[in-house]
Amino acid sequence: MDAASFLLLRIEDPARARSWLRETLPEITTAADKTSEDLSHWTTGVNLAVTWSGLKALGLPAEALETFPAEFREGMSARVDILGDTGESAPEAWEFGGTSGPAAQDALHLLLMLYGTTEAEVSSLLDAQRARLEEGGLRELGVQRAARIRNSEGHVVEHFGFRDGISQPLIEGFTDAKHPAPDALGPTKAGEFLLGYENEYAEIPDPPWVPAALDVTGVLPAGREAGWKELGRNGSYLVLRKLRQDVEAFQHFLEAHKEVAVGETDAFKKQWLAAKMMGRWPDGTPLRPGEDAPPQHASARGHGVDNTFGFAAKDSEGYGCPVASHIRRANPRDGLPPNAELSRQVSRRHRILRRGMTYADGADRGMIFIGINANIARQFEFLQQTWLNNSKFGGRYDERDLLVTHGAGTMTLPRQPLRRCVEGIERFVTMKGGGYFFLPGLKALEFLARL
Ligand code: HEM
After folding, report:
1. Ligand 1 in contact with 94 (CB < 6 A)?
2. What is the pLDDT, as a whole number, of residue 424?
């Protein structure tokens, strides 16, 4: 689905909001009992996610609210030290989910996600939803439009010009035998993305619970302890970040630093430099040592969508894909010390499902980043803090991810006989708004609607 609208809502009248939720339930898109054939024919989708203050506003009592993890309860705008959202990216200036304004974190209760194959389809879904908001005791705080943009070959790209949506975890038990999604890390346990299932630590963590007495219609599964029901089962957490991309500054930067790069023409040098920062060629082909251009016959190796590679055997030093590049920081695969096997295990414990799209609000362009994970602190926040924003990642000094954070400083590009160093890197990405949401399973939504 190529178009979306994200409707940000505040609950003003809890009783009416619950009856709105009961009416909306049949419209919520679910993959339950669907074959991959059914899924491929979907043209529209509706999903609902709730913040911690939204759960409170719906009437969930304190004893249940407290069973949610701390990072979700605190919310994204309170996690700036971990996320590195400082300076221009600070939550004081966010359009939504921040610390001020009508759509501040505490006022933001629900995220209604509307998907369609065309903008027109999404607009009609949006009109239909908007017509019911007042009656449903809900106030619209804002709408964020998003879309998938494509290059001339029809592949999904982001605004810096790279192919996107390539690497996704392969989830154990969800493999479609006809279309296996190759992944160098092998299958990742479902519990990394869905609450109530075994995770990569061979544990089933306690999902959020509610006192059994509240579940009057008996929709929720029994909890591990008597007197409690599981609210989390089949749910997940959704991380939303509106990230403005300064495409002009990025192009300027490539122009100003192209002499560091390899190549015959200026255009190629810029492409080379950008690829080293991202960790893939713009068409998505992985960077390999000894290859200073995208391979001519890349299609023979799964053109663009290859996700089966590792770093340990042939590129441990990052001569192909720099250790500090975006994709290598975001998923080090088998490349972390002390050894490949352990590294694969560590990497599997910090994966997220990415469901982002681009946006264009007039001249402002960027990405609506959506990450889905069962444990925000261990997955999304860890990625952001310990790998992307970490100035010492991979034995580097004072280097940060160039595409995600704020004034990264320098980047080392390993090369023989001498490494190359890119200096004076500015900020290309600014945080504009976001939040942490609980993505309830259908049973949990049913329960919330009948609270
Ligand atoms: C505007 C900001 C961002 C841009 C332009 C961007 C762009 C990209 C691109 C082009 C890819 C490679 C294509 C693919 O594998 O699908 C990628 C991969 C990835 N990105 Fe980002 N990204 C951004 C922000 C983030 C953030 C905030 C995170 C997480 C905190 C993140 C995590 C990842 C991960 C986990 C991968 C897959 C790595 C792999 O498995 O190879 N990205 N990103």
Report:
1. no
2. 78
